[in-house]
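debug: dumping io for the single-chain case to check the tokenizer round-trip. Nothing else runs in this session.
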Amino acid sequence: MFPLLTSWRNSPRWHIALSGGLDSTVLLHQLATLARTQSLPPLHAIHVHHGLQAAADAWPQHCQRLCDALGVPLTVVQVQVAPGASLEAAARDARYAAFEQALGPGEVLLTGQHRDDQAETLLFRLLRGTGVRGLTGMAAQRPLGQGVLLRPLLNTGRDALETYAKANALEWVEDPSNADIRFSRNYLRNEVLPVIARRWPRFAQTFARTARHLAEAQALLVEVAEQDLCPALVDSSFPWLGLPSLELSPLLSLSDGRQRNALQHWLSSLAKLPDTQHWAGWYNLRDAAPSATPVWALAGGQLVRSGSRLWWLPDDWSTLPEGVIDWARPDESLSLPGNGQVNLCGLTPQGRVQIRYRQGGEVLKVEGRGHRDLKRLLNESALPAFVRGRLPLLFVDGQLQAVANLPLGDEPTVILQWLPPTNAQRLR
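debug: decoded output
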């Protein structure tokens, strides 16, 4: 039994990422053989067809024959690879998106990356100038969608996989694009690593050991980051927004290196981490005048500063809702296009009820204070500026009657409750 898989034997299902190549073919055969003598979760293979080359059209049939022989069901998923600077990266993103969609709660995806792949990954990332986090190499396990990704062959060399395949008369496909040294990883695999192996035959084991040392160092950096973030993770004055946020002042007491380490850890579940050059955006955000509204744009969203607080806004949040929505049944919840939903508490207003958004110049009658300019009321509430454009406003017969989630006045007769769009927040 693979040691890594022991604690996952109660999983609802094990999915095997089956490319048809050597490593995934051996993994599938080993698991199917093991399932004949041991009680394992149901096995299921997934083949992702990228449609990037003519040779790949025959691979689904090859995988189907292999799975039929082993009694393992197979699903073939056709994906569209987005055009971009790196075809390798785009194909990988499309592949893992398909895997993530296939995983149910608590299910496992098993992939066949081996020790030589780990060495290749480590060298590739080193040449790109990655930091400690990247030089830990491929993780043996990590969360993926509703389940988990496991790599049970990371301590096994390719030579051992070939020996197993030949001993069991297994057939596998060879991807012709693997010989194209225009791709960086192929160049390393075919041109560089064989030269290293002639001088240092056990380099793959050595690289794997280095990756383990760096993983330990990264774990220590995570501990420091969590300690540094703890005082910054105090609740905001607007918890109903549901947006990730940090208090800025505890971060300012840290050195630049510890600030970057803390923010990398916090952002790791929200966005693709910035490279070294893009960290200038953090310093501009941090050092801006208190009255400024600086923004640090990142992949998938942006980090903004409002007062003494940092907020993470996903890309969807920057698209402001528009228009006027008639609320025919104000006694029921109302879904707002791209902006969550609202409901009313208190007296049900009589007349034409609508939800609108700020246009400027709105005036609200506040109990005990008379008519007040909405802009001034929002400033008094200290509501972040990025929220104000999507804040629902309740109008009755053309008059502003309530502002969502801001009960202005002592005893308002009607309260407008707003649940912001969690699907846009990409919370994890």
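debug: round-trip ok. DSSP finds 14 helices and 19 strands in the chain.
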